[in-house]
Design goal:
Elements lengths: L3 H11 L3 E3 L11 E3 L1 H20 L4 E4 L8 H6 L7 E6 L6 E3 H4 L15 E4 L2 E4 L9 E4 L4 H6 L1 H8 L5 E10 L14 E11 L4 H18 L7 E5 L11 E9 L2 E12 L1 H10 L11 E8 H12 E5 L12 E5 L10 E5 L5 H14 L5 E3 L5 H10 L4 E5 L1 H6 L1 E6 L5 E5 L3 H10 L1
Parallel strand pairs: 3-9, 17-18, 17-19
Antiparallel strand pairs: 1-2, 4-5, 4-6, 7-8, 9-10, 10-14, 11-12, 12-13, 13-14, 15-16, 19-20, 20-21
The structure holds glycyl-adenosine-5'-phosphate.
Glycyl-adenosine-5'-phosphate (GAP) binds next to strand 10, strand 13, strand 14 and helix 9.
Length: about 425
């Protein structure tokens, strides 16, 4: 679709998905806030991932480690050395800074000026703990959530009596001092990761790498992401992250091209052996270091991919009967488990108090069970389109027949088909459709 990126950015603001952080001060450093519908979508993505990676699996447990850790963690993990640094070049004329990898040329892409020689720029976000701002008080905001998992490897085994192979899953914020954050929420300095670390015998690492790659691709497909917008790329040896023996990127076809949305990594014994060496603690399991297969996806980045994939426009509108026929109609075809609002309750007209009263009663019945909206403003056709635009699964209309028969019409977002359902059966009817 033409101008999809611009459309998504303006749609996200207009309909309460994503706002610029500190907007009244002109924004801040590529930080974004998730609005009322954005936070629902984000929570639904996290719930889907959590259920997929813990509830549906045999041997995976959860964790929530702290963001701030002993800085020795980052020394041992290799993040404070050259491994976790981008090559930065600066334009001698306009002084803009770029990642060398990103521009791959000798002149400034903005003004054509000469560039400085590339310097290594570490991506860890530094901060101070306590009242004194000196070297001893320096630590870092975590750059990947998985280090908190390695720190708790023994605690989890001992408290949960787990046996290899097993996994630990975690969702949480991570921070990177990216040189060029860009493309809306694709690359930001503060983001959220959903990571699962699978500890296995070295000899079974390849088998599990393939297994988890397939599982993770299926997660997107089962959530309705179009197959043609998804692919897996083998990361060439010379581009591997410093901790990985092998990496595959799951890529999504964003409006600005194919880009990584999730990484599948074979980290070998890099983390457990380095943390053993640096801490003096023996992190072996039954005499060996388990190898680690990692799946790592950004909440914000997958949010962006789900939005791009679901956003559709119908020129002239889907219904030919009303004025909308001349408009472009937007339908957000999010999977039912991801849609921020599951049901909208609409009185047919707002100037009939009996209809409004009944619709409000239905709204109160549904609210504890589903994310539900009540809307009485504008023509019914316009209200349907407003709900279709944010991906609401069902629009429920209370009309004059409802007053006699104690029922209402249920209209599906994708089919636009309407059927009458008794109000007493509504909750179980919707549960069946939305949760199955
Ligand atoms: N623990 C491994 C790890 O962090 P990564 O490939 O650097 O691997 C994994 O990051 C995922 O985290 C990426 O695929 C992306 O979805 C997300 N991510 C990484 N950096 C990001 C950034 N600056 N902004 C938004 N998401 C990011």
């Amino acid at each position: 679709m033409e101008n999809l990126l611009e459309k998504i950015v303006s749609f996200s603001k207009r309909r309460g998905f994503v706002f610029l952080s500190s907007e009244i001060y002109g924004g801040f450093s590529s930080c974004y806030d998730f609005g009322p519908l954005g936070v629902e979508l984000k929570n639904n993505i996290k719930k889907s991932w959590w259920d997929e990676m813990t509830r549906k699996q045999e041997n995976i447990v959860g964790l929530d480690a702290s963001i701030l850790m002993n800085p020795k963690v980052w020394q041992a993990s290799g993040h404070l050395t050259a491994g976790f640094a981008d090559e930065l070049v600066e334009c001698k004329k306009c002084h803009k800074r770029f990642r060398l990898e990103e521009i791959g040329k000798l002149k400034c892409p903005e003004c054509g000026g000469d560039l400085t020689k590339a310097k290594k720029f570490n991506l860890m976000m530094k901060t101070f703990v306590g009242p004194v701002e000196n070297e001893a008080a320096t630590t870092y905001l975590r750059a990947e959530t998985c280090q908190g998992i390695y720190m708790n490897f023994q605690n989890v085994i001992n408290s949960m009596r787990l046996k290899v192979p097993f996994g630990i899953a975690q969702i949480g914020k991570a921070f990177r001092n990216e040189i060029t954050p860009k493309d809306f929420i694709y690359r930001t300095r503060e983001f959220e990761q959903m990571e699962m670390q699978w500890f296995c015998q070295p000899k079974s690492a390849d088998k599990f790498f393939s297994y988890w790659k397939k599982e993770r691709v299926n997660w997107y497909l089962n959530l309705g992401v179009k197959k043609e917008n998804l692919r897996v790329k083998e990361v060439p040896k010379n581009e591997l992250p410093h901790y990985a023996k092998r990496a595959n990127d799951i890529e999504y076809k964003f409006p600005f091209g194919w880009q990584e949305v999730e990484g599948i990594h074979n980290r070998g014994d890099w983390d457990l052996s380095n943390h053993s060496k640096h801490s003096g603690e023996d992190l072996k399991y039954e005499g060996y270091f388990p190898h680690i297969i990692e799946t790592s996806v950004g909440v914000d980045r997958s949010f962006f991919a789900f939005l791009c994939d679901a956003y559709s426009e119908v020129k002239g509108g889907r219904t030919k009967t009303t004025k909308s026929a001349k408009e472009v109609e937007t339908v957000l075809k999010l999977d039912k488990s991801l849609a921020p609002i599951k049901a909208a309750v609409l009185p047919l007209v707002k100037n009939k108090p009996e209809l409004v009263k009944k619709a409000k009663e239905v709204y109160q019945i549904l609210k504890p069970h589903f994310a539900t909206q009540y809307d009485e403003v504008g023509s019914i056709g316009r209200r349907y389109r407003r709900q279709d635009e944010i991906g609401t699964i069902f629009a429920l209309t209370v009309d004059f027949e409802s007053l006699k028969k104690d029922d209402l019409t249920v209209r599906g977002r994708d089919t636009m088909k309407q059927e009458r359902v008794k109000i007493k059966d509504l909750t179980s009817f919707l549960k069946e459709k939305i949760e199955k």
